[in-house]
Amino acid sequence: MTDREEEPRVVIRDKRRIDPTSGTVRVPAGEQPAGTRPAADPAGEQMSEHEATADGGQPTVVDGDTAGGDVVRQLAERTEDLQRVTAEYANYRRRVDRDRQLVVDQAAERFATQLFPIVDDIERARDHGDLTGAFKVVADRVLGLLDGLGVEAFGRAGDPFDPALHEAVMHDTSADVQVPTATTVLRQGFRRGDRVLRTAMVAVTDPEQVVAASADGAPDGTVPAQPGEGPASD
């Protein structure tokens, strides 16, 4: 028998959905009938329960309680770190705001201090009746600058003497005052809030009875007993 080419084999596939003999519906290959569940793949279930390692070694089984405890611990650590960073940032903001306000206050006080001699000249001109015309306009603007900086003048005749606010340059006595009093203001004082920028220069008047008591050595104006004399008896 001589060699000859092998003839191609013809394959006939029956793709009819209805079986011509029984009349039932055929199910195509690879499909599952409706209402049925595919068979479980043992290999697939095993891979879903235990994940194989990349190098083909034995898979690692993680305990759920241990993993949950690690997550809770890490969450607590991150929360503590966040709270610490938040507190540090809040303290930093407070320090920055305090330093910024301090710089602003110092600049305002330095500028106001440079205006004090001008204000003294304005007050002397006011006392002599020379604060008129254009000079008065300029004086009002200078005083307005002090008001804008929050600086106020203090020191008026009749104020009780306060060493923290007044600088006494003159002293006299009078029976018209009951406590040491600033009777004459030689130079105004200035303060900004609770901070005194310049004390007021004043003349202080003291009560006469205090001076008499200190001179006699006995308080309240009583006459001290003479040597050799006993206490007075009724």
TrEMBL record:
Coiled coil (UniProt feature): 75-102
Keywords from the UniProt entry: Chaperone, Coiled coil, Cytoplasm, Stress response
Subcellular location: Cytoplasm
Keyword hit for Cell cycle: no
GO process annotations (BP): protein folding
Keyword Chaperone among UniProt keywords: yes
Main location: cytoplasm
Record-linked CDD domains: GrpE
Ranges for region Disordered: 1-67, 212-234
Compositionally biased spans, kind Basic and acidic residues: 1-19
GO molecular function: adenyl-nucleotide exchange factor activity; protein homodimerization activity; protein-folding chaperone binding; unfolded protein binding
Classification via SUPFAM superfamilies: Coiled-coil domain of nucleotide exchange factor GrpE, Head domain of nucleotide exchange factor GrpE
Function as written in the Swiss-Prot or TrEMBL entry: Participates actively in the response to hyperosmotic and heat shock by preventing the aggregation of stress-denatured proteins, in association with DnaK and GrpE. It is the nucleotide exchange factor for DnaK and may function as a thermosensor. Unfolded proteins bind initially to DnaJ; upon interaction with the DnaJ-bound protein, DnaK hydrolyzes its bound ATP, resulting in the formation of a stable complex. GrpE releases ADP from DnaK; ATP binding to DnaK triggers the release of the substrate protein, thus completing the reaction cycle.
PANTHER family membership: GRPE PROTEIN (PTHR21237), GRPE PROTEIN HOMOLOG, MITOCHONDRIAL (PTHR21237:SF23)
Family, similarity comment: Belongs to the GrpE family.
Subunit note: Homodimer.
Protein name: Protein GrpE
